[in-house]
Amino acid sequence: MKPEISNDILYIGVDDTDIDLFESQYPVPDGVSYNSYVILDEKVVVMDTVDARATDAWLANLKAALNGRTIDYLVISHLEPDHAANIGRLAEMYPDMKLIGNQKTFTMLPQFFHIDTTDRQVVVTEGETLSIGKHTLQFFMAPMVHWPEVMVTYEQSEKILFSADGFGKFGALANDDITDWACEARRYYFNIVGKYGTSVQALLKKAATLDIATICPLHGPVLKENLGYYINLYDTWSSYRAEKSGIVVAYASIHGNTAAAAKKLAEMIEQTGTKVELCDVTRTMVSELIESAFEYDRMILAAATYDGGIFSPMEDFLHHLQAKGFKNRTIGLMENGSWAPVAAKKMREILDTMQNITVAEPVITIKSTMNDAVIAQMEALISEMTR
Ligand SMILES: Cc1cc2nc3c(=O)[nH]c(=O)nc-3n(C[C@H](O)[C@H](O)[C@H](O)COP(=O)(O)O)c2cc1C
């Protein structure tokens, strides 16, 4: 459903329901929305543009919202093309329109658009305000809440935070279910912004000084109620604390023996009353594996040995976790090999590059198939990880 914000602030974003991969790597089965907004006052302000995939629909929404008026300012929160693709086009269509950004925005802008906007640039700094009539925009820098030039805008009269990629969520808005916000927002957060927890914490500190009634992100639904819920989740996620108590059992198996052992292990963990999430690493999208790994406080990685290394899907998952700054967790290891099992040693080498990872003992070694000795090792590992 198209978000309703207020009489003066209109949503002009567009749903993209036939995109295959967001950022060329994240499957988005429910699509994604490119959010953009117009503020109608004595001056007219457009808050960001949209992806090139959505240009025509966005221009139609813009035209309807403007209802014959012109644009005085375009606020550029973030230069990534899923929001910024139409800056050049808009600047050409509205030659008197000024562009609002920060120093870094205007350093990068010419890399994307080969038009000279020098005499149309309004460079804003931390906390600066711009009155546009009844509404006053206040700008706060949010460097590395994805990219270095990111900034957020707080509209003082209606208490709206335009939060850039912060508080974003995968999923088109047409069928959005706000009651299930956390699942796809979590996958979005850890895969898109997760590496930059410290920067998100800095932004949350700034946001805490503002009286916020509405959050307008650049993807996903506009948030109007229970803001504390969303902000608390962001605080948990960005401080790398686990959101839930439980053990993710993630397995990568070629011929099924490691899978069978992982399933047995999961059953045994469940019997202790501990929550378990079982994931087949070879058949689950990596972005979901990453989401689960960050969501829970413990994880057991089970992998076959493969050509003197780790079976590739597990190795790939570990490299993704490394790239997302995975930390502060307890990990158990289970390996399988028919002649020289080394998967656990190799997995540990990758885990050793991450901060504050505790590898629980014992490390379980399977020689081809599970047997009583393996079950005994499992019992010992579960006892260690559920103490
Ligand atoms: C392509 C390939 C390479 C393998 N390389 C090794 C290896 O380097 N060392 C080893 O001990 N086992 C190796 N194995 C054997 C498997 O790790 C072993 O059979 C294991 O039990 C497979 O577990 P799974 O049934 O869960 O796939 C390899 C198997 C395949 C198919």
Automatic annotation (TrEMBL):
Family matches, as SMART domains: Lactamase_B
Boundaries of every Flavodoxin-like domain copy: 247-386
Family: In the N-terminal section; belongs to the zinc metallo-hydrolase group 3 family.
Taxonomic superkingdom: Bacteria
Protein name (database record): FprA family A-type flavoprotein
Keyword vocabulary terms for this entry: Electron transport, Transport
GO molecular function: electron transfer activity; FMN binding; metal ion binding; oxidoreductase activity, acting on NAD(P)H
InterPro entries: Flavodoxin/NO_synth, Flavodoxin_dom, Flavoprotein-like_sf, Metallo-B-lactamas, NADH_oxidoreductase_modular, ODP_dom, RibonucZ/Hydroxyglut_hydro, Rubredoxin-O_OxRdtase
Required cofactor names: Fe cation
